[in-house]
Amino acid sequence: MRLHLLIFSLSFSIAHADFFSDSYIEARSKFIHLSQKLQNLNHFIEVGAAHIPSQIDPDLTLNYTYIPPTNSTNHLLVVTSGVHGPEAFVGSAIQVQLLHFMKNKRLKSTGLLLIHSVNPYGFKYLRRASESNVDLNRNFVVDENIFFQTNSGYDKVKHLLENQESVSSLSKIWNRTVFGLLQLLSSGTNLADIIQAVGQGQYHSPRGLYYGGQAHEPQVALFKKLISHYALSYEKAAFVDLHTGIGKKTQLTLMTGMLTTDNSWSELTKVFPQSTNAYYSLYNGSATAPLSIYGDIVDLFSYILKPKASFAFTAEFGTLGDDIITRLTSIHRVIVENQGFHHGYSSNKIKEKFDPLFLKVFNPPSDRWRKSTLQKSHKMFEQILSSTEI
What we know:
This protein is an alpha/beta fold. The protein has twelve helices and eight strands.
């Protein structure tokens, strides 16, 4: 398996800042513009969009670009961004970078399907969740019976996560969260159980955190349709879902889902060998992992394309860090944002102070962080394509 690595030769003569955008509209415009420029050079490229229904905004779209290979249809690589709204700033930049370096390059046996901003409402209005307060990465469930299950662990910490009043003080919410967790731990509750209870998703508190909904959101059907259609002629298919937030600052973690099979993990580690010196770390999210997440888009991909799926993973770029204080800071900001969305802020001053803090969890403004992220994503895709090209 070989790939002429000139395909993604990164000179960074174009400033990395050119790939980033300050808004959903700007990011979408860049993605469409570059896609159409590629299409003008190669009429086999397909550029499309699907409208996402909204009660408040008629201009929300999921956009996609399909770039076919020149020779054989050996491997399809699907790349999604923006499942969680604010994370789309980085995911979109990575996809725009991919499009830019494909301008005069063609892959021989690997097709690319880029799906831009899966959650356009969340991207535009800076919410992790959809307009229905649904965390899409808890909504892509394989078994729809999960929508009716109760997360009893979430109920035990619900009083720390949901408060029925306007946001009047950031420190007040911080103190309530931290001291509440300390009380639970001192009473014998296991920290791992708390993390599982919060992180796995819940389907019975519509205004709560990590709410997975009570039915599939429109994006699920669109995703199924797109990957089923474009994967039809391929022997194999691989999937990368771009995210930010979790992990050490600037660290890239490749995370598989609950439904990861031994064969899928084996295929992934062939491409990304486990090594302490690598620019990435690996996390096997199978059912035996410390944290199980229901409704992950990675698992739905693997399930739908089961005969063809070679590997599927979340590419998670760490932002603030992973020490205990930083983790508490991240969850605190997610709690505040959710409370402020549902119950408002006592003053505009508090909201104006908080909004940049929330966005920083998912889209750090640091030029150094952004350059590092683009460089690591380049290496990651270079490594994938060197394995899929034959």
